[in-house]
Amino acid sequence: MEIIEPLGHHELFLVIAQLTVLLLVARTLGELFRSHGQPAVVGELLAGVLLGPSVLGLFAPGVYEALFVVSEDQFHLLEVISWLGLVMLLIVTGIETDIDLIISKGRTAIVLSVGGIVVPFASGFALGWFLPAAFIAAPEQRIVFSLFIATAMSISAIPVIAKVLIELDVIRRDIGQLILAAGMVDDTIGWILLATVAGLARTGVLDIGSAAATIVSVVVFLGLAFTIGRRLTADLLRWVDNAVGSDTAVLSTVMLLALAAGAITQYVGLEAILGAFVVGVLVGQVKRFDYDLRHAFEVVTLSIFAPIFFAIAGLRMDVAGLVDPTVFAVFLVVLGVACFGKFAGIMGVAPLAGLSRWEGITIGGGMNARGAMEIIVATIGLGAGILTTEMYSIIVAIAIVTSLMAPAIMRWSIPKIEMSDEERDRMERETYLQQSFVENLTRILLPTRGGTDTQYAARLLGPLVRDRDIELDLLCVREPVDGPHGTSTGILGRMRNGRFVRRWRGRRESNATVVTGETDRVFSSVERHLGDPERTPRRITRRRDGSVAETILEEVDVGYDLVVLGETGAGRSPEESLFSDTVDRVVQEAPAPAMIVSTPPAMRLNPPADWAEESLDRILLPTVGTESSRFAAELAFSIAARENALVEVVHVVDAPPFDDRFAGDPDLSQQRRIGEQIVEREAELGRRLGATVLTTVTTSERPEAELVERADRTGADVIVMGSYVRPISRRAYLGSRVEYVIRNASCPVAVLTSI
What is the pLDDT of residue 439? Predict the structure, then answer.
């Protein structure tokens, strides 16, 4: 087998130097434009023009030639990196695409696509038919040339449009989604036309069969992607997240999927960007790929790879070729026809699509951008012998100019588009979902020994995970083979997921584990309280390694969003420790929020056979307006909405003790007004989540006692509270009031701790 020689020293140096200069100039100009209120993509495109033959080649020809006048093979190295940036940018675009919104506005998108492709194609064909023969590489093939110009006029630059929409922060608005939908349809049709025209140029015969095969390939690929591919993508990301528990592994999987899909679409004669975009759409629908992961991927793409892609696209522009008066005149004519075609097409169908004039201008301005797509078209035309060098320069110039026009037009027109109530509600809902605690839960861990408290915790988790893409895992810790009595001291450790995990060795924890053979009974005793026989949680069995707490913490460290702990050992008097050693340790050190569920002694002595059969009619929700209270409120409302339960939101104003009052009753009206604002804010969230809500603001010298008494008076089935963990004297401390409620309430208490 012949061994391929590695890249030479000079070739490697040159590509690194090229990337350094391109990224430096692109990011510098991008930030400069951003600081003046313009999208960074404008500066990134101009960076290529600045470094190309038009500027650098004119004023510093030696530097330009040393850097960019290279062999085709050398320049192809840059192109590969450019395509990598394009693939990543299309993934980001797909992630930001709301496929449900596009489907709901399908008729509008189709009408816009027809206008955006038919008029530019017709005007482009007419232009090609009447252009001077000097601009046609093969004058005898004018019909092929005209078809090619028509196709070039129909193309839109989705990457440029997407980056502008992202930078203007309107990609999630209806207008942004419509532009993306119409642009993708136009580009798909455009690539089919391009493949057909290129085949016609090569053979001289219009190949209907190739065009039909391309159309079938698009339909089949999209059909498989949004059926089998949707399920495969979700299952694969879930498996990687479960098996590895690493953000880097999930991001790598997304990139691998996009590259594989791009390779498939490229192989069947479509463009790689179609596969990357579709993968982005599918990944955007997977809950495991949460906001933090999206943001991380977007930051790397938009700060490194996308600027390099746009700079390389601008590098192909040679303004000097347009100095000739005839060439410049033809450039102006072609530019006018290109802009007219897109604007006339979109503006003509906008009323039919039910859009306003400003919406038509915005969509026309966005879809008028040609960008790198047009440059690719021009390159194909030059290689196929359709375009002359002058015509190639004209089309590349149009790609740059129209891409520079788009941000200015959209920035001017978008503020004039009024947001409908429906769109405003959707945007507010999306903002809530990004910040929501419950909606961003993907994995919950419930360690269990089969006790009453974990059984009741399962009762609360049942309605929470029902009909949601949340994975619930049950963890049972078994005794080691050498028995439960071995002890040791000291701190050991090992690497887990790239981090050092401590293993504390200390006193033995009695009754904290189960023996081998009992795990099935433990799991079954918890599962029957979930109330959903069709949904079976994942069972995890771990052998105790050191303390039970350490075993639980090692499992939580894999990547859980919430750990739920049933507390059977809660002390009932202030002299006793509130939590067992295991719960205390897990609450303090877990890298995720914890929910502690505690049932009163009477319920532990006489628990029902099946908690799921016990109705959950009333939830008491104390709140003080903090983030932890907000998260607990989400939890309570989500459970109540599925149980048709009433949630009483209570804020207790802390009145000074009688002995501390100097003259009469204190004026607490201001505190009560603040309390009313707090409970009303929480109630508004509850109504939005579909729960029945009652608000109460009361005053008491002992708010914690008032909460316990109110739960008794109103017959509350459970109290849900939020709290922060405060480490005091090597134990978890939730605050005196929360601990009082846990110790004295006659109903179960669930406390959600924030980290």
Answer: 85
